[in-house]
Amino acid sequence: MESTKERIASAVPGGVTSPRGYRASGVSVGIKANQGLDLALLVSDVPARAAAVFTTNLAIAAPVIVSREHLARSGGVARAVIVNSGCANACTGDEGLQVAREMAAETAALVGCPADQVLVASTGVIGVALPIEKIRCGLPLAFRALGADQGPHAARAIMTTDPFPKESAARVSVGGRWVGIGGMAKGSGMIEPMMATMLGFVTTDAAVPPPLLDRALREAVNDTFNAITVDGECSTNDCVMLLANGASGVDVSETTYREFVAGLTDVCRELALGIVRGGEGATKLVTVIVTGGATSADARKAAKAIANSPLVKTAIHGGDPNWGRLIAVAGRAGVAFDLSRAAVTIGSIVLFRDGRPYDEMAPQAAEYLKGTDLTVSVDLGAGRASSTVWTCDLSAEYVRINADYRT
Amino acid sequence: MESTKERIASAVPGGVTSPRGYRASGVSVGIKANQGLDLALLVSDVPARAAAVFTTNLAIAAPVIVSREHLARSGGVARAVIVNSGCANACTGDEGLQVAREMAAETAALVGCPADQVLVASTGVIGVALPIEKIRCGLPLAFRALGADQGPHAARAIMTTDPFPKESAARVSVGGRWVGIGGMAKGSGMIEPMMATMLGFVTTDAAVPPPLLDRALREAVNDTFNAITVDGECSTNDCVMLLANGASGVDVSETTYREFVAGLTDVCRELALGIVRGGEGATKLVTVIVTGGATSADARKAAKAIANSPLVKTAIHGGDPNWGRLIAVAGRAGVAFDLSRAAVTIGSIVLFRDGRPYDEMAPQAAEYLKGTDLTVSVDLGAGRASSTVWTCDLSAEYVRINADYRT
User: What is the ipTM of this complex?
Assistant: First the structure.
């Protein structure tokens, strides 16, 4: 973790256009009612190797279907990514599919590449038709606005209810030579209200062969985007896309793979934590560490159960060192658990261990919980595997945001 | 459902002491800080056949361990049930076990039966020692207060954060002869805050042979207590106990089993729905019906996912006919799902079917959602199995209750 922080810290500030050979833009085309930026375009100067992971939701949105098709047809090559916010183009039937295909085709015509080298993403209201004419009119604007310094506009154009844009960039030493990795993301976690899909876009100027690129993305996403939760929901439109255009002239091989993945994971983690910090109604970022799992899967399952527990999340919101709730969730998580060997630690304060409470430490733990960047740890007492996930607290503001969303 | 309502409606008002041969009491012994009733005693005039289902939480509480032991040792026979509120006697180690055993032993001495014919239950704060001396002093009070008309006091004595007591009773025709079934319950759903275990106690004056009694309880609980949720939490102390003392002189056999189970299910459903109506912060009771499941397990899984979705629950709280959230949860529930055949109905208003939205019906659905007793239905489009579960809405009040619980 130390070296991780160092690596991020030494990185240039920036996002998707930090690596060499990428330009981006963000413009307003009138999809969002409030006239905010709502169309983002990301273009690589040369065809880039592309990998992506998509939502596992079976109510899959049109842009996800089209992007998956294009990746397959192009053999994992992409020149551009076109993204709109304000409308998810989900549950929109055949018409929605045509709209997503047209978005790609119009973009391809401007960029000068085959349509299947364009990836598409949408985020916003479900079940509403995406007004293709607005995109058709806006695309040339987005194309003309492209620039290597326009990453921040692109990051804003993909936002919906996000309180702030999420960008991250790093320069990583791969076999002794530097490559750039950059990214942007939006969303308020795994939540899927009408306007809060999780989208992530990551670029690198390293040259990464397709199988390694795919493996790297899956590995990085597993410990970052897939390790966060706001409320356990999973969207119809979620996706994380990674482009590698080789503009640095540095090749990633099996030998240097680990260096590349470490840098990629850093960038993804930064973006993912930004999503949690900006979670709907969130006031605290909570790192949930589960140790003592019989297996890694058990540890992850228990960590997710804790991170999604409304009782844990409300206790943390209230600054209540309510260790009984943590134990109770661990016990019901459906994993191996031994109460007599289990332990609960809040910050570095042990509140339960060896079958007995340490309630005298509660005031100290309550003091710690007044912070905004918190760690809670649960030992399952059943083995040696561990897992870390990130979540936020559950506030009355979350209820207000989601109860009053369309009213 | 029609006949169900009729059966309940024709029942005598009452609870655990409505069937013949049961007496109960509820007294205050000083475990609760507010001096409320906190010790309930239920006694059958003669040894009764007993069955019980317990929490699946692995952080199992002392009274659950003791009750399970006693049922095994007594061969499924019980004379009495002793229950305290205000302290869960959970995560209290060997000392807690001794306290639970002593509660049973002291009760047995008063009632005049073997200790293993006494079942024990506790609900309240986790990880705090249960003051056995208060129970020792209070038990004679509870014993002297026993009466066939004291069921309502017992129902109040098992409450913690419950806004109202839950009692239900029915008279059921079994093979042409009438038997009584009665029950009481507490809790605010599956939730497990420091003080909201789910407890249910059901009595009958039918004579039911052990294997049928156990089967009947499991069957009834599956469609009632196990089909409700407030926030998806499962307590360390949950249990439902059923006593059958035969005082009616009516035997339940394989031939009349279905009649008995139907009555038992009615009583359990009434209690379970009371728990949801009294769920923390709840303002609406929501019946979630999932149809079109490939299997019953799929239908139940999807129904539970919908019933636990914070986005669905907040939308209902806000009266927002947000069908996209229902589809999105169905799609991520991990069950067979076909978007092109799926459907969402709120009340009787279809909002999505055959792959297209009916948003023009949204205002009508919004009007329907102003009610307090609501039904939402989702068809998975994948088969013919169905499942019904009950939940409540998620309000800012839920957050307030659980964030400020110990402060």
Answer: 0.71
